[in-house]
Amino acid sequence: MCTLSIPVDIFTFSIAINCCCHSNRVDYAFSLLATTFKRGFVPDVVTYTTLIRGLLSQQKSQEARLFFANLIKFRQVQPNVVTFNTMIDGLCKTGHADMAFWLFRSMEKCDCEPDTVTYTAIINSLCKCGLVDDALNLHSEMMEKCILPNVWTYSPIIQVLCSLKRWEEVGLLLNQMIHDMKISPNVHTFNILVDAYSKSGKLDDAKHIIQIMNERGENPDIVTYNSLMHGYCSKGQMDEALAMLSTIRSKKIMPDCYTYSILVNAYCRELKLDIAMDIYRNMASDGLSPTVVTHNILLHGLCQLGKSMEALTFFYKIQGLGHKPNIVTYETLLGGLCKNHYVDKALSLFRTIECNGLIPESDTYNIIIRGCLWSKKYDGACKLVDKMVDCGFSSDAATTSVLRHLLLSKAQDPTLVALYQKCLH
Q1: The pTM is what?
Q2: DSSP string spanning 119-166?
Q3: Per-position DSSP letters for 216-272, written without gaps between them
Q4: pLDDT tens-place string over residues 111-157
Q5: How far apart are CA 327 and CA 332, in angstroms?
Q6: DSSP label at 195?
Q7: Which of 97, 230, 234, 364 is the most exposed place for a label (fewest CB within 10 A)?
């Protein structure tokens, strides 16, 4: 356009600046800003707000704060509520809640009244910090100022009240939301409630919430049913949990990997590995590929039953199918092999960890060291302790406890004494 002498104005530049910010090229956006000045254009508040949003989207909160401060200091533009909301929301999301609250309280000095979006951002930030009483006070303040809350204002408060098991206040807030404010909870809000009630064993309350959802035309989704299924499993009501799978399908909702993992985990806890394996194999019928979490659950279940060699065979099988293990996979297997006296197998497996692009962690070392101690491989334990220390890790309470117990029975063993001293240091 410029080459062809087609006229451009501040709106053309603003559109281009917005595109650059959405493309994560805020550096290009600021180059365009400089060009607007050269051409004699005066950027408006929308242009500056776009640039602030661009900086925040690229995790450049410090630059955004400085840019915003300079706008006010040099009076380049009068920030409006959208500018403040952009800045406050960005500060909240980048962990600068104190600064966001200070900016929120400074709005009135700049002749700018906070709106629902402003209060919601601050309330959400307070709830994430666990400051639910402050959030409730702010909620009351906005009501007194006739600033109407929305579903996103209520949801974080309800969530943190649920986590604190302040059920009476949850009920009052939900009642106020639906009946007084005529705000319909969305699926996200309902899922918060179903999940909280299910985790607390209040399954009747969870089912009642699902009933309300249906009555209000909010269709439960897979997250809703997964939460209820998890609640049944936690209470050992496996028949009801398994029946949920049929309910999910009857609602034309596709189960996800988490659905199956919940069931697999529950049956493994009940030591019913055959059923857990059947459920695991049924994942393929729903077109799902098991995740590393599902595999780790099954490996743990096999190890718990003392079937550590079967677990190792299963591990090699899924690896051959292209499933990548994580460090938890290895720690689960190492723990199972060591407890079932297959320490040589555990040592061989330990040596393959780095070959698979993983780095042993503190727990990994401590598990294999304890295995060596239980099987009287003290020299091997010594070498592993040295390697662990070189990596910046130290022995945990369980490893130190094993060593102390061995020393009580074999106080004269110099290798154990030296090993104990190393662990203490």
Answers
A1: 0.82
A2: HHHHHHHHHHTT-HHHHHHHHHHHHHTT----HHHHHHHHHHHHHTT-
A3: TT----HHHHHHHHHHHHHTT-HHHHHHHHHHHHHTT----HHHHHHHHHHHHHTT-
A4: 889 999 999 999 999 999 999 999 999 999 999 999 999 999 999 99
A5: 9
A6: H
A7: 234
